[in-house]
Write a structure and sequence with these properties.
This is Dihydrolipoamide dehydrogenase. With 508 residues, this protein is an alpha/beta fold. It contains 16 helices and 20 strands. A hairpin with a 5-residue loop joins strand 10 and strand 11.
């Protein structure tokens, strides 16, 4: 016996939830399969808990950077209160709210492990025992995400290392922590635990945040060291051992050792697809699921004649970020509905190619100390892409709003401009609270806004967004077509403030 429904979604994280929601909103009958908690990795072991663990110490540091406020901040971070706040945000690891939401909008929930079993067929090994089979009239959307990679280092597996799950669900921070990996997870968790007072050592094979502009990783390394962490670059780990006393000894190339209470592995992610049944539809088990620009799984049996299998989120390896996965999910949910109902795909807000999931402007925020954010291409990537580019670099010391936000504010901004097209193709900001600057850069890139038009996007004074004016000035004065527009000057900005700050003088 098998039950027939319109759409089956395997994976109940944010990506699966969004895909199911869009398909259901169009009137389709949807069943969502989740083996753990509705809300997935992001809600319980990644984005939400990690950012709540980071926020309290960041707020304390922010207060300590403002004269008048720092005198009022006399205590230490209340770590138990931080952990309790984390518990609130993850609902004490209960997904009842998510399950109730699914029921309220008419989406069926199957708790268990879902796997493909041929074209349009899904078998669910139910958590409580037994199996049930479903057949999809229109589509199966797989959104099972990824798991942490545990590298093959001598003794590591036996040493019971932490992954991001153990780090974000910690109940008592260790006195000493070694973090292996210099990417986003490693950097953020090192920042969080250093904020708790843990003695942190970061071991990175190269620089930190190697996919960003070099100055971002350099600033974050400096920030971690100022928090008391040890940052070791070009560090190759040869062996890890858990001693009889419970300590972890990490041996580096050359024989040097680092001893800690726990070791966190943050060296990347792998697809959660080993038991997904991909081989039953002609795909390679255990790997990433390749997709076209509509998120349709390429090479899957039956997809050429009548599209049915889609992969959204981390599993397709296009951009391993929750917000990008949700973007893909919204688009593919609309596409599945349009194809199922026979409505023109052009009626969707995504256009004729509904789920193109444009990845030319992928925003990313690293909640480190300081924050590092980027979107689009780095200067090196743009050049490798064969573009003629100009790069504008400015310090946030030229922005009055930054100086008002924090005494002695340090930070840097960069725009990468395609000179042939006259548009921004990349942006990077580093500094306190720069995350909220990222959307404006994303819009500029996605909208292909000409530089000449950006001059007319006037930033309010005195805000951090004035960095855009400084960046445009670094690129050069207006074009001849724009020369008639009145020019702003740093001097007039300072006059408007009522008092000429050191930052304004530096800008002038």
């Amino acid at each position: 016996m098998e039950r027939e429904v319109d759409v089956i979604v395997i994976g109940g994280g944010p990506v699966g939830e969004n895909a199911a929601d869009r398909a259901r909103a169009a009137g389709l009958e949807v069943v969502l399969v989740e083996r753990e908690l509705v809300g997935g990795e992001c809600s319980y072991w990644a984005c939400i808990p990690s950012k709540t663990l980071l926020r309290s110490a960041a707020a304390l540091r922010a207060a300590q950077r403002v004269d008048g406020a720092k005198q009022a901040v006399t205590g230490r971070l209340d770590v138990p209160a931080v952990l309790a706040r984390r518990d609130y945000w993850v609902s004490d690891w209960s997904d009842q709210g998510g399950a109730d939401w699914l029921e309220s909008i008419g989406i069926g929930l199957e708790r268990g492990h879902g796997r493909l079993d041929g074209v349009r067929r899904v078998v669910v090994e139910r958590t409580g025992g037994g199996e049930v089979a479903y057949r999809a009239r229109h589509a199966v959307i797989v959104a099972t995400g990824t798991d942490p990679v545990v590298p093959r280092i001598d003794g590591l597996a036996e040493a019971a290392p932490w992954t991001s799950r153990e780090a974000t669900s910690v109940t008592e921070p260790p006195a000493r922590l070694v973090v292996i990996g210099g990417g986003v997870t490693g950097v953020e968790m090192a920042t969080a635990f250093a904020g708790f007072g843990t003695e942190v050592t970061v071991l990175a094979r190269s620089g930190l945040l190697s996919t960003m502009e070099p100055f971002a990783g350099e600033a974050v390394a400096k920030g971690l060291r100022e928090l008391g962490a040890s940052v070791r670059l070009d560090a190759a780990v040869e062996r890890v051992e858990r001693t009889a006393s419970g300590e972890v000894v990490v041996t580096l190339a050359g024989g040097e050792t680092v001893t800690a209470d726990e070791v966190l592995i943050a060296t990347g992610r792998r697809p959660r697809s080993e038991r997904l049944g991909l081989e039953t539809v002609g795909l390679e088990p255990g790997g990433w699921v390749s997709v076209d620009d509509t998120m349709l799984a390429t090479g899957a049996a039956g997809n050429d004649s009548q599209p049915w299998l889609y992969a959204a989120g981390d599993l397709n390896h296009r951009a391993l970020l929750t917000h990008q996965g949700k973007y893909q999910a919204r688009a593919v949910g609309d596409l599945v509905a349009a194809r199922a109902l026979g409505t023109p795909e052009q009626t969707s807000p995504w256009g004729a190619h509904v789920a193109t999931a444009d990845h030319s402007a992928v925003p990313q925020v690293v909640f480190a100390e300081p924050e590092a954010v980027s979107v689009g291409l780095t200067a090196a990537e743009a050049e490798r892409d064969g573009r003629e580019v100009r790069v504008a670099d400015v310090s946030f010391s030229s922005v009055s709003g930054a100086g008002i936000l924090a005494d002695g504010y340090e930070g840097q901004a960069r725009l990468v401009v395609d000179t042939e097209r006259g548009t921004v193709v990349g942006a990077t900001f580093v500094g306190q609270d720069v995350a909220e600057l990222l959307q404006s850069a994303t819009i500029a890139i996605v909208g292909e806004v000409p530089i000449d038009r950006l001059w007319h996007a006037v930033p309010a004074f005195p805000t951090m967004s004035e960095v855009w004016l400084r960046l445009l000035e670094a690129l050069g004065r207006r074009t001849a077509a724009d020369a008639s527009a009145p020019a702003d000057s740093e001097a007039s900005d300072a006059d408007d403030s009522g008092a000429r700050s050191d930052d304004a003088e530096a800008a002038a």
